[in-house]
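Issue: ligand-bound run for iron/sulfur cluster - logging full I/O for the record.

Environment: standard queue, default settings, no custom constraints.

Inputs:
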Amino acid sequence: MGNLYHAPDVVNDVAVNQDFAMLYDSSYCMGCKACQVACKQTNMLPAPMKDEEYEFNLGGYTYPPENSGDNYLRMVFTEVDNPNGPKPFDWIIRRESCNHCTRAGCVEACPTGACHYVGNGSVDIDPHLCIGCKFCSTGCPWSVPKYRERDNINAKCWFCQDRLSQDEEPACVKTCFPDALDWGYRSTMLTKAQKRVEQLKSEGYEDACIYGEHEMEGLHLLQVLKYKPEVYGLNPNPSIPLMKTIGEAMTPVALAGVLGTLAFVSMSYKNNKNYKKPKLHYDPKTDETYTQDGEIWFKDEFKRKHSIEPGDEHKEQKLVEKGSDQTVVKTQDKSDEEVK
Amino acid sequence: MPRQTVNWIERHSSQTRFWHFANMVFVFILAITGLFLFTPLGHYLPTEVMLWGKIIHRAAGAFFIANWLLWIIRKPSDFAHTLKNIFKPWDENDKNFMKYFFPYMLNADKYHMPRQTFVKSGQRVSDFSMYFVLFMFAVTGVVLWIGPTRGIPQWLFDFFKMGHDICFMGWCILMVFHIYLGAGIFPVYGKQASAWMFGSGYVSETDGLYHWGQWAEEELASGENVLEVEEGLTPSQQLKKNEMKKVS
Ligand code: SF4
Ligand code: SF4
Ligand code: SF4
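Outputs:
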């Protein structure tokens, strides 16, 4: 783990208690993917160098087909027919990376504390604490954290905390020349985004919106979109996955279940503390089980077996006595043996 | 003068007891490591411990599955017999046993439980639940180990993570019952109950008849698995003595 590119000591110096955010304006983005390259470079993430290493990706400009432990950011391209909009056909782009949620499911799902809020709006995975259990991905509405096999960790965009600590903006922001990406206080980014959305609306993009203003209690990656989030393949109402919520609820449920069961067994223990178990023995001659007092033990079945109707005490008594006699005989056999 | 003897019936073979013991060890390791891996308790442990916890959890899981597979492969008839016992139809006695079991646990004096076969109906419910939960633990655990990469989609990984958590909840409750009854903390069963699985594997005539009346009666009638134990000796001591006699 010593070679992992992550600088926790430096990260500690990042200004905390300040709410920073990244603004991505899809209406300015030209899809050059320079941000993807910058991300790879600054985080020293290996890229496929040989033909056979490329992942097959048919019919689209998006690459790679999905993010991975070695790819934190990709631009997703979609072609949309939009006859009512200002353009009848549009090639739209969105940014796919960690959204740095205010309420981050990944942080809630991580058992080690590796996934954590940095305190400046970013959410980071500390690779030195990560054990590669992959549970953070189950807590994320977009399954963002991905497994990196070579280091046995999950990894994702960390808003270049090392650069932030040096008063530099994240690498992707720095590299984006049409200024589709910006970095600053979240409130400033939000104001800027709102203005841009108004402008887009006036240009005929009536569904223009900000993705991230309220989602997950506020994302720190704000995206200005020209159309509804669904058009970009974005979930308009992201939430902590239900399966994660159910799974996590099992811990308190298990605790309550165990406490309830313990209460039940404690009651059982208390009530039966003085229970005296009868001494039983089996008589092969009658094929019955008797107590030490010569009473038939499985009485109900005995009655059923001998068709003793309720109230027919005489018949029952006779049969029981017969059984008792034989019990006595058996006991006497033993004493005889003893005498011998 | 011959000493008075008491009948004991063989309940669990040494192989079964060893198998159960191995299961217990693996499950114990899985439970302790799992507690830290699957709950926020892990935040309080150093990463190295968590990392080792994860490795040990997986190794124990693999050994646990192997223990079961070995049993199924080596003794398929035993496994088939176990399944048959679990799924055999319930007669009147079985239904009554289950109906009165919880009230009986609360006040054994008030209830007279009906004759039972080798596996009581209550045990059948518990065995089924345990086997089911363990099976689900194993399947979901393997997926958690492999995924969500290598052909396992994220949704399946998420689903099985939830499944693993639900199994954990079920397992905790089952274990409280299993330990309370199986280890004989339940005063009616008495501490001798633990010896059936952890001791000699023999059950006394009186306990056999009390718990599994029909089975014990059949065993005592046939005498095949019955050991006559001299008063003052334990079944293990008696077995040793019989062995010595044979040798001399
Ligand atoms: S560098 Fe800027 S313009 Fe280029 S793809 Fe990234 S966000 Fe878009
Ligand atoms: S987008 Fe996913 S990985 Fe990123 S902070 Fe939110 S929950 Fe965590
Ligand atoms: S993979 Fe790492 S960051 Fe993700 S939940 Fe596990 S320990 Fe936490």
